Amino acid sequence: MKLETSVKGNCITIVGRIDDTAQLHGLAAHVPVGKVVVDTEGVTFVNSIGMREWIRLIRALRETGRSIVLERVADVLMTQMNLIAELAGAVTISSFHAQYVCPSCGHEGTPLVDVGSGLAKMPALPCPECGSAMELGDFPERYLMIFKG
Amino acid sequence: MQRPEAGRARGKLVVLHPERKAQRALHRLVGAAGVPVEVTDKLDGPGTVIDETTIVIADATHAGPLIRPPARAWIAVPGEGLAPADTATISSLLAGGWDHVIAHPMPVLAEELLATVQKLLRRDAFGLEKYLTWSADVRGYTLDNAQDREAVVSELAREVVAFGLPDRVGSMVSVIADELLANAIYAAPVDEAGNRVRVADPRDRVRALAGRDVVTLRWATDARYIAIEVRDRYGSIDPRAIAKRLSVSQTSEGGMGLPLAYACCNQLVLDVAPGKLTEVVALLDVRFKPTDLARTASFHAFTGEAP
């Protein structure tokens, strides 16, 4: 799925592949000064060149004094952002998708985790198939390092 | 009585570990290699001779500034008992120039250790088959053009999910394959002076991959692991430099590709025939939850003859 971006008011939406062909940093010029909300729920793939371009977008927004709120961060983007020390504390994350597994029925999915006023540990979430409590299917650090900036 | 046919393994193994129970367990594991095994709790223990025919299997207490005597290879098994090794220890070993660091607990430890020892003893480094059981169906692609990368990665991800593996694995495999292919297409080609001549190529440029520029990807799963193998014909990778880069926190500067592939897999293997062939094999365990294994992947670097 090719990359698609849109800007509506102070909200940037990114869908598809963030790869070698992605040009994201230019989006910074199209949003008003102040708080910017970036929604990446539809991102399906991020490689290392795409990650570099994503960081260029974050830098471009920060350098022009904007505060950045990331909403519904795709799991593939969230785990990669947690590898980059520079991003810790650089953005506010309001919600993100994470790998969960149901110990009862084996269902795996990436439900949305609401950060709310803070997230000290990953919450248990209900399984959409059997209703049991799902557990995080990966190391918490892969999602929570970015909050420790 | 006829003697059974001798195995192909040649050499000697030394298990270097301070704990008797761990010594016994490791002895049992590597004993399957079919060569003599010596067990000791210290480097200068009585009767222990380490020379260039020796493969040493050592615990993490030897990860520090200790000067290791020359040996055929040093393999670090830094986990505590049946627990996985922690990230800091693995990073320290990679930074310290270890070519073989096994991060995971049993049963992965046994499978990985024996495969590593046999590759070294037999001086037979190449091929993903060494990590899989006979039942695995190996599939492959040859890239004719630099622009084939995206199509190959998409097809691979589709096949992986069609095999019944979860979307999570398909997603990881996509990232690993993409980075390994990009490395083979753009970073591997060097001129006679060793300059990396394609590293700045625009990624949207059409470029035929023929002759020495051919890049291949093979993959297979045996329901224990999924293995992805990417080969280029340059043999220009420097495993020690790669290990050092994997040992540090990532920044947005410098090459992020192999560190990202390493972060997505459970075992990264570099097989190099200098000047001729580089093979990178990434293994993902598909049996266990990620949290049942080490958070940071194992690493292995082999140098050998191209097949």
Question: How would you portray this structure in words?
Answer:
The complex is a heterodimer of chains A (149) and B (307). Chain A is an alpha/beta fold and 149 residues long. Chain A has helices spanning 48-63, 75-81, 141-144; strands spanning 4-8, 11-18, 35-46, 67-71, 92-93, 95-97, 100-101, 108-109, 112-114, 125-126, 133-136. Chain A contains 3 helices and 11 strands. Chain A has a 5-stranded mixed β-sheet. Chain A has a 4-stranded antiparallel β-sheet with strand order 8-7-11-10, with no helix packed on it. In chain A, strand 4, helix 2 (75-81) and strand 5 (92-93) form a beta-alpha-beta unit. Chain B is α/β, with parallel strands linked by helices and 307 residues long. Chain B has 2 domains: 12-122, Rossmann fold; 128-303, Histidine kinase-like ATPase, C-terminal domain (Heat Shock Protein 90). Chain B is 28% helix and 20% strand. Chain B contains 7 helices and 11 strands. Chain B has helices at residues 20-31, 87-95, 108-122, 149-162, 167-187, 239-246, 257-264, and strands at residues 12-16, 37-40, 54-58, 73-76, 100-101, 139-143, 215-221, 225-232, 267-273, 277-285, 298-303. Chain B has an 11-stranded mixed β-sheet with strand order 2-1-3-4-5-11-9-10-8-7-6, with helices on both faces. In chain B, strand 4 (73-76), helix 2 and strand 5 form a beta-alpha-beta unit. The model of chain B has no long low-confidence stretch (mean pLDDT 90).
